[in-house]
């Protein structure tokens, strides 16, 4: 397993620097695909090894003025957008360069990835990659692994974020899928709600999340349930101080 993972990481690095290759195949998701069925057929994909950082998003904002703070229309980002930066093009003491960028909307995260020739991962892709621990491609059946993730959720949200890449890579070569920030996915608005939760002001959004959560498989994986409920309830223009993102690519897309 160790040798296989090492070879996979070398291959992924040669194919797209900064990305790891995650194998495709059949994957048992926590979100049912249809009543009584939760097996998903996934194609291989590339996933950024680390979340996008403040420095990387600053470079994007410098080259894309319409995504600078103060320039983005409210329909694409709420008032909290990059509010912890000292200025639209300056990070300041509240946003170290190698910290994961947060307070970015779904629209902004999607635009960033598109500018890199990439995209946001789907939920199933993110879940597939995040099911791994340091040695196993799927550690979800291990109570100790699940508890380690839950321990992160119990930490105060006021704590300063560490830099990206400090946690050990998982079996795919990906860092920080747990224990650092929540992450946007492409289909965040349709994970549980029947209506598109990107429509702001939906009074039934949390009702949908509460009822939808009852359909989740593997209910013992409470950490996944929490993440799904949060992503599904947040409008695409929404921002929080613990929500960032990373990009994905299709293998044939080549290096960014």
Walk me through this protein's architecture.
The chain has 256 residues and is an alpha+beta fold. It has a single domain, classed as paralog of FGE (formylglycine-generating enzyme) (Alpha-Beta Complex). It is built from 7 helices and 7 strands, in the order αββββααααβααββ. The protein has helices at residues 2-15, 54-63, 106-115, 123-130, 143-153, 205-213, 222-233, and strands at residues 19-22, 25-28, 39-42, 45-48, 182-183, 243-244, 248-249. Strands 1-4-7 form a 3-stranded antiparallel beta sheet. It has a two-stranded antiparallel sheet with strand order 2-3. A two-stranded parallel sheet has the order 5-6. Helix 6 runs antiparallel to helix 7. The two termini are 28 Å apart.
Which helices and strands, and how do they pair?
Elements: H1 2-15, E1 19-22, E2 25-28, E3 39-42, E4 45-48, H2 54-63, H3 106-115, H4 123-130, H5 143-153, E5 182-183, H6 205-213, H7 222-233, E6 243-244, E7 248-249
Parallel strand pairs: 5-6
Antiparallel strand pairs: 1-4, 2-3, 4-7
State the gist of this model.
This protein is α+β, with helices and mostly antiparallel strands and 256 residues long.
- How many separate domains make up the residues? 1
CATH class, please?
Alpha Beta
* Count of alpha and pi helical runs: 7
Number of strands: 7
Structural class of the helices, strands and pairings?
alpha+beta
CATH architectural name: Alpha-Beta Complex
Shape estimate: globular
Helix content: 25-40%
**Beta-strand proportion:** 5-15%
Terminal-residue CA separation: 28 Å
Q: Strands of the largest sheet, in order across it?
A: 1-4-7
């Amino acid at each position: 397993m160790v040798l296989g993972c090492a070879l996979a990481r070398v291959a992924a690095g040669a194919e797209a620097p900064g990305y790891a290759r995650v194998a495709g195949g059949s994957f048992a998701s926590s979100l049912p695909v249809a009543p009584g069925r939760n097996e998903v057929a996934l194609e291989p994909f590339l996933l950024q090894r680390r979340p996008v950082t403040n420095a990387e998003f600053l470079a994007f904002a410098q080259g894309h003025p319409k995504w600078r703070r103060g320039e983005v229309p409210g329909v694409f980002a709420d008032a909290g957008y990059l509010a912890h930066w000292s200025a639209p093009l300056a990070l300041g003491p509240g946003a170290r360069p190698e910290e994961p960028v947060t307070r970015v909307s779904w629209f902004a995260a999607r635009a960033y990835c598109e500018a890199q020739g990439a995209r946001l991962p789907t939920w199933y892709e993110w879940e597939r990659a995040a099911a791994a621990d340091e040695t196993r491609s799927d550690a979800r059946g291990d109570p100790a692994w699940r508890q380690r993730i839950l321990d992160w959720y119990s930490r105060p949200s006021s704590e300063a974020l560490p830099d990206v890449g400090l946690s050990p890579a998982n079996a795919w070569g990906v860092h920080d899928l747990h224990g650092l920030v929540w992450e946007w996915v492409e289909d965040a608005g349709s994970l549980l709600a029947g209506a598109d939760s990107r429509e702001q002001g939906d009074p039934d959004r949390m009702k949908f999340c509460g009822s939808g959560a009852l359909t989740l498989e593997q209910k013992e994986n409470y950490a996944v349930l929490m993440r799904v409920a949060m992503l599904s309830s947040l409008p695409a223009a929404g921002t929080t101080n613990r929500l960032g993102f990373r990009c994905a690519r299709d293998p044939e897309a080549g290096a960014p």
